[in-house]
Design brief:
The structure holds two protein chains of two kinds.
Chain A (H helix, E strand, L loop, with lengths): L5 H16 L1 H8 L2 H27 L11 H13 L3 H9 L1 H22 L5 H24 L10 H28 L15
Helix pairs in contact in A: 1-3, 2-3, 3-6, 3-8, 4-6, 5-6, 7-8
Chain B lengths: L1 H20 L8 H11 L2 E2 L4 E3 L5 E3 L7 E7 L6 H15 L9 E7 L7 H10 L7 E6 L5 H8 L3 E3 L5 E3 L3 E4 L4 E6 L4 H12 L1
Parallel strand pairs in B: 4-5, 5-6
Antiparallel strand pairs in B: 1-10, 2-3, 2-6, 4-9, 7-8, 9-10
Helix pairs in contact in B: 3-6
The chains are: A mainly alpha, B alpha+beta.
């Protein structure tokens, strides 16, 4: 694995964020449901997460008392992610530039950054809940999108939904395989929140 | 303590936002949202000038006093539009003859006025044995009026890059006061009849 310094991770996040906002890139991802929900939204969260890794050095002491064990931060991430999983909000982002702007700011700033700042503080059980939630959601979405006879988004056709359903299914399988592998190789040692972060 | 307050604040705010974004956990799609919205708050339909398959003009406002069952189509469409207009045909066949044209009028509006001329509208109507007296197959006279009309009904139309369009489909019922009052599934004649009977009361 390539180890990047935290400052570099932060800048990489900013670059990713800016790249995703470029009109041709936006058009490319938003042309399909898989690109919009399956690639663009996760990448926007990733951009925020990278920026958050950079900011972790700055914010570690400041937000600590408001974010004990990372629980409030993770809850914020889950709420913001849930909001952008509602099909009507995807439609709204495509229809109204204002909602598109909200999407591009909320996902990195209110989902990605809190995730990066909270995940290292989260207890093992909390991480387990997040992972199992994500897996369950992927398979439920797969089932829903493959089986739904009703069009869920006005901007996408039913065949796009089926593609997204299979995409969720494949990502779910890959993620399960990864977690099973981790379960056998994990050393069950979580660094204490006050352990100095590399790159400081 | 601070964390608990922050956490609770996030949960309350987040739940409030999600509750509003789903109209109280009742709808998750924009299609569902517009159906709920017109049911609780019927929307006045703008006065738009239309031209039907006979070439004569009619204003949507002139249809007041009767129920108008509307679908949005383009005549080259052989998928969704065919199902929608099939539903209208079933509705016409199932409604009492005395009501047709008098209490209830069917109206198909093309969102492709450039291609859909009076001639193609007439051909489209012939596929469903549409009689001009009770089923107007129409297009807007001034294409500038189209965006507002589509917006009022909540119809999204996007060119599909192959000469056709992507669009959402439903059967719309305008009440006697000229307000869009019900939206039902495009392939559900029973729901359409129920909506008409309900509004005729």
């Amino acid at each position: 694995m390539i180890e990047l310094s935290r400052t570099r991770q932060g800048w990489l996040g900013v670059i990713l964020w800016a790249a995703l906002a470029l009109t041709p890139v936006r058009r490319l991802f938003e042309a399909s449901m898989v690109g919009h929900m399956g690639v663009q939204i996760p990448l926007l969260i990733t951009a925020g997460w990278l920026i958050g890794c950079g900011l972790a050095i700055v914010f570690r002491r400041d937000f600590g008392s408001y974010n004990s064990h990372g629980v409030p931060g993770i809850i914020l991430t889950l709420f913001v992610a849930a909001y952008w999983m509602l099909p009507r909000n995807l439609d709204a982002a495509l229809e109204k530039p204002f909602m598109e702007l909200i999407k591009f700011t909320a996902l990195p700033l209110l989902a990605g950054i809190p995730l990066a700042l909270s995940w290292p503080r989260l207890a093992l059980i909390g991480r387990g809940i997040v992972w199992s939630n994500l897996l369950a959601m992927l398979f439920v979405m797969a089932w829903l999108y493959i089986e739904s006879p009703v069009r869920i988004c006005n901007f996408y056709l039913v065949n796009q939904q089926t593609l997204l359903g299979w995409y969720c299914f494949k990502v779910g399988i890959l993620l399960s395989a990864f977690l099973v592998m981790r379960a056998f190789t994990f050393n069950f040692h979580i660094p204490h929140p006050n352990t100095p972060l590399s790159g400081e | 303590m601070r964390s608990l307050t922050t956490g609770l604040l996030i949960v309350v705010l987040g739940s409030w936002v999600l509750w509003n974004a789903t109209d109280g956990a009742r709808t998750f799609t924009s299609e569902g949202a517009r159906r709920l919205s017109v049911r609780s708050h019927p929307r006045p339909v703008p006065p738009v000038l239309l031209q039907d398959q006979t070439g004569s003009q009619l204003n949507m406002q002139d249809l007041r006093g009767r129920l108008v069952v509307v679908d949005f189509i383009y005549t080259r469409c052989h998928t969704l539009c065919a199902v929608m207009s099939g539903t209208l045909a079933t509705l016409r066949d199932d409604l009492p003859t005395a009501q047709l044209g008098k209490d209830v009028v069917l109206l198909s509006i093309s969102f492709d006025p450039e291609h859909d001329t009076v001639k193609t509208l007439k051909e489209y109507g012939a596929r469903y044995d549409a009689l001009p007296g009770n089923w107007h197959i129409s297009r807007v006279v001034h294409s500038t009026a189209l965006p507002k009309l589509l917006h009022t009904f909540g119809i999204t139309v996007i060119p599909n890059g192959m000469g056709g369009f992507k669009h959402n489909a439903a059967i719309h019922v305008i009440d006697k006061q000229g307000r869009l009052a019900r939206i039902v599934g495009y392939d559900d004649p029973k729901a359409a009849i129920a909506a008409v009977e309900d509004l005729l009361k």
